[in-house]
Structure formats: C-alpha cells, structure tokens
Design brief:
Number of strands: 2
Strand content: 5-15%
Oligomer: single chain
Number of helices: 3
Order of helices and strands: HEEHH
Distance between the termini: 62 Å
Structural class: alpha+beta
Strand order of the largest sheet: 1-2
Radius of gyration: 21 Å
C-alpha cells in the first residue's frame, strides 16, 4: 500500500489510518528513522518490550556487571584515542 502524504510546518507527517491499523501503530509507538540515498527515508516500527524480552533471554545466566564493565573500558579507551587532544597534559 502506498499513499501520498505531506509534512506540516514542523516536518511532521501523518501515517494514514489504514496503515496504522494494519501495522498496530498507536500513540507512543517507537520507530527508527533512517536517511537513505536519493531523498529516501525508512521508518521501522520497534517494539521496546519485545527487545527487552529478547535481551533478558540472551543475557540469562551471564554476569551483566562484568559485561557492562568491559563495555565501559572499551568506550573509555576509544574516547581517549579519538579525543586525545582534549586530555589533560601530564
């Protein structure tokens, strides 16, 4: 299904009612919007609850604190390299 819609002065567009109904879109539905080539954008509906359930399942039985600490260390190392000129001189 395709329809022509237009944006308002704030850049908002309305997703037609039939499409919203078909895709189960209601207020507070979350989306990922991506800019692609040739003036194209994609809008992907995400289900935050489903993502949380999936993460819980994936991480079940794993030491989340250890994983989080490892990620923090990796981020700090990358930040130090990328923004080396901002680090205090020793």
């Amino acid at each position: 299904m395709a329809e022509i819609v237009e944006s308002d002065e704030s850049g908002r567009i309305v997703i037609p009612k039939e499409i919203r109904r078909e895709l189960g879109i209601s207020d507070k539905t979350k989306f990922i919007i991506r800019k692609e080539g040739n003036g194209r954008i994609t809008l992907t509906k995400i289900d935050v609850e489903e993502m949380a359930r999936h993460l819980e399942e994936e991480l079940k039985g794993k030491d989340i604190d250890t994983i989080a600490e490892q990620i923090r260390r990796e981020i700090n190392e990358k930040a130090k390299k990328r923004y080396a000129s901002l680090s205090p001189r020793q």
